[in-house]
Specification:
Oligomer: homodimer
Structural class of chain A: alpha/beta
Strand order of the largest sheet of chain A: 3-2-1-4-5-8-12
Number of helices of chain A: 13
Largest sheet of chain A: 7 strands, parallel
Strand content of chain A: 15-25%
Number of strands of chain A: 14
Order of helices and strands of chain A: EHEHHEHEHHEEEHEEHEEHEEHEHHH
Helix content of chain A: 25-40%
Number of domains of chain A: 1
CATH architecture of chain A: 3-Layer(aba) Sandwich
CATH topology of chain A: Rossmann fold
Shape of chain A: globular
Largest interface: A-B, 57 and 56 residues
CATH superfamily of chain A: NAD(P)-binding Rossmann-like Domain
């Protein structure tokens, strides 16, 4: 297949690109490299030293003989070039990672909120409109997030995208109805993925586009089989308070003797997936494309759930690190349950890599190896969800009044 | 109150501005005048001769002594100026009409789809982000559309925004849940109002913004008590295939001896409201503001429903016009039921102006008076929802093969 990976220079985009190229697909990366610009803006860098995308592609070709073409293109701002590209290359599949993906970054200031909405909605809608207008019938696989769901409030499991409900009609009869799960995003970033769902629903229904939406959990780990093959193919690894994700951050904190930072009570339950499983899921989704006219296919791309404080204790037990409870800069429930269905990927043959399987050590090893590249001052998570929360965190950075912070 | 009317130069925005100024409020219009530019783009004009917004405001002051301030500002493209404006003027209420509002225009070409999404989502999200950042605690009243609902499929009435459902939890117990009505927009335009709903839900929940969303039916009529007061205060009146709305179009077609154009079987049921009731509803919504922390308040702003073919027959009976059935350029069900609740506005004191009450004649009078300004070639609705539909319509403009068109 000819596959376009939009955002193929990113944390999951790059290993996905290598995974698909390794399987013999003709892979094209389309990326505006905004993630590298954001590193520059924030003054942080990947823990792992990351080469330019052009150099990464050159090394891959040298190693394997396979070519990965890189196209510098801004989906949200260069609509006509995007349409031209689709018309010229006519991909069989498009994997869409090309969105700003950090919740704390999306809540940093009003400018970051506006950027996240403009960029993410613009990229996704431009892509859909361009696919229709260029007559591109590629299977579109989009990276969504478990965060579109919010948390189930009545003890029901979170299904894969669609919820069975009963409503009472005018005759007083109860009728079954299947609906898109009522969305409750918890940040501007998550909200953009909720907006994407509505865009996909419309374009699948009106234009018969074939779309799969993958609601992914928090990705942990760094290496995949392909990124391990050469030092210069190494994946990016974010540790800062905006882009670093919770489990990877704990592992890094442990490696540099920094206390494990739990925000609030740590009672938040989150869904997780290892990066090797993430690229495997994309392969599985590609092999199971919907037909034109089908509703959007939605998978939950996660393999296990954990409470944040349990993860902290797990990492503390493994490494001897100290756990520190800090005020929560997010507006969210202190404690929540999260029961998630992921039957579809299991049925397609996913064999989950769980936290128990020793890969935690591997991440600690990576963190130790590159510990000299860490700026300790950038480890704290500081983006606050509201002005009130920002003030509380500022006045009590150590969380000594934590009991009163909901 | 100091009230900002965003899009106050438009079809409902202008009479709303006058209505609120007439009640003694300090009214500011914020508008980028894009609707006038679109007239220029399409080469059509309002049936009624419309003065510049500055001239309209001058006449109003001359007539009443009340001042309406006009601010030329593009919400989607001038974020910083918008924030400055909110900081400087600190309005008590904001009425948000500033979105591209024609479904056929939004489906015209890919460029029109992209414009509609960029403009509408950009305007709404910029407004929300700017309100939060400037600490503006105005009551935001937004004009949504009945089109976010789609049509009820199991014989249930469409509630006002929120639907009571039952779901089965992991213990097998049925639990009640109130959810935002599952959206099924029928065009890119309607889709943007579905996206707005998610934006409002998030900002009400995260930032405590006070928001009312009015899901309006198709507005008919042209005059209100204030626009009648001077020839130069006359409201705009669209008759073209993109911006003209169904009942007003029938009345104009009748006035110029053009057959009444019913698309498809005319079995589509739509919700309607007279423009005088529309401005009254906005007044009522303003007087019933939610508190910070409340969920978004949603009203259905409509007073009656009719099948399109019944309306055509009604106008034909009134005027002697001929009814013509043409292929439908929209992708929609040929026939649908639409039972809608509007209890909240009735409880607040709305006294509906219905079609039976003679105002139909008034619209025919307006149409006859300005019939010399009509370009008959622009009356047909030509924007097709998909390429396939465009081809069917092109090959069978007279609808002779209508029976085979679903």
């Amino acid at each position: 297949m000819r596959i376009a990976v939009l955002g193929g220079d990113g944390f999951v985009g790059w290993p996905t690109t290598l995974h698909l190229s390794n399987q013999g697909h003709e892979v094209h990366i389309i990326d505006n490299l905004s993630r590298r610009w954001i590193d520059t803006e924030l003054g942080v860098q990947s823990l792992t030293p990351m080469d330019s995308i052009q150099e990464r592609c050159r090394i891959w070709t040298q190693l394997t003989g396979e070519h990965i073409q890189f196209h510098l293109l801004d989906l949200a701002r260069e609509y006509e070039r995007l349409k031209q590209w689709l018309t010229e290359y006519r991909p069989d599949a498009i994997i869409h990672f090309a969105e700003q993906r950090a919740a704390p970054y999306s809540m940093k200031t009003d400018r970051h909120k506006v950027y996240t909405v403009d960029n993410n909605v613009g990229a996704t809608h431009n892509l859909l409109a361009a696919m229709v207008d260029s007559g591109c019938d590629a299977h579109l696989v989009h990276l969504g997030t478990m965060g579109v769901y919010g948390y189930s409030s009545v003890g029901a499991a979170i299904p894969e995208g669609y919820l069975d409900v009963e409503i009472t009609n005018l005759e007083g009869e109860k009728k079954g109805l299947e609906i898109l799960y009522p969305t409750k995003p918890g940040s501007v970033y998550h909200m953009t993925k909720s907006l994407d769902q509505i865009l996909f629903q419309f374009y699948a229904q009106n234009d018969g586009l074939r779309i799969t939406d993958l609601h992914q959990g928090i990705v942990w780990g760094t290496h995949t089989d392909q990124t391990r093959r050469h030092e210069q193919l190494i994946n990016r690894f974010d540790y800062d308070g905006d882009y670093g994700t919770v489990l990877n951050r704990f592992l890094i904190q442990a490696a540099i003797d920094y206390p494990l930072t739990v925000h609030g009570t740590g009672g938040q339950t989150r869904a997780f997936i290892h990066i090797q499983d993430s690229v495997r899921c994309i392969e599985l989704a590609l092999g199971d494309a919907p037909q034109s006219g089908d509703r959007v296919r939605i998978f939950n791309q996660m393999t296990e759930t954990h409470r944040v404080r349990d993860l902290a204790e797990l990492v503390a037990g493994l490494t001897g690190a100290e756990v520190k409870y800090l005020p929560n800069p997010r507006k969210e429930a202190a404690e929540n349950d999260l029961i998630v269905k992921n039957d579809q990927f299991l049925a397609l043959g996913l064999n989950p890599t769980t936290l128990a399987e020793g890969l935690l050590e591997e991440v600690v090893d990576v963190a130790r190896k590159y510990a000299h590249r860490i700026d300790r001052s950038r480890v704290a998570a500081v983006s606050a969800w509201t002005r009130d929360i920002a003030q509380r965190v500022e006045h009590d950075p150590e969380g000594t009044r934590l009991k009163s912070v909901s």
